[in-house]
């Protein structure tokens, strides 16, 4: 069963924005949330007349995640896809973090996906309905990062994926995409120059990794063509850091 009604977090820019467009092009209904209200408005303007529902929601807040899911499940009870895409990368060494910032990075990148995945599964599993979750990790979660908090949370996203694949089997497939350096994104702009150059030097394929290309991998993992994959990690990285 391919999904037809999908939640994408962080849809206002980057990979999330590209994925919203890809899924709408495939005639799906898309629900997205973001903290970037102007970004959501321009997204809604871009796709006016198409089945797109936008919500201002901070995935780092348990209350806001619950209120968002209440609205989504009431308006779209047939929802069967979830992409935990929203992410926060600050690009600083661990010594430069205060406790509040540590909490924020963990909440956006880990707690939000945990809360949303749990609500999504609690909606589908009792009815034995099938669905798919795609999480966004990073090469940083596999080989380390000059930002230790980011490396930590992205490794956590990989663990969450494999574990939720077990928790939600056999009805909900849960897979993770691990991108390299995605150009034209706010996150790429925050990568220290020396690390940006190292990422580019590591790539085996020529051509940049665009948000649209990462969105294609996410769309594949939502589709039936990946029907035998769960708990799987797909790299979207031009072959960098072979591992
Ligand atoms: N850009 C890269 O080079 C890169 C590399 C590897 C992995 N990733 C991961 O891919 C995913 C997408 O990244 P991107 O490059 O498109 O980033 P981006 O910064 O362009 O987009 C992320 C979106 O998430 C939203 N967001 C941030 N915090 C939020 C919150 N608390 N609640 C709701 N929305 C929030 C932002 O407003 C933004 O619209 C992220 O999980 C990121 O960590 C990115």
UniProtKB/TrEMBL annotation:
Transmembrane segments: none annotated. Pfam families: adh_short. Gene3D superfamilies: NAD(P)-binding Rossmann-like Domain. SUPFAM superfamilies: NAD(P)-binding Rossmann-fold domains (SSF51735). Keywords: Oxidoreductase. PANTHER family: DIHYDROANTICAPSIN 7-DEHYDROGENASE. This is SDR family oxidoreductase. It comes from Streptomyces nitrosporeus.
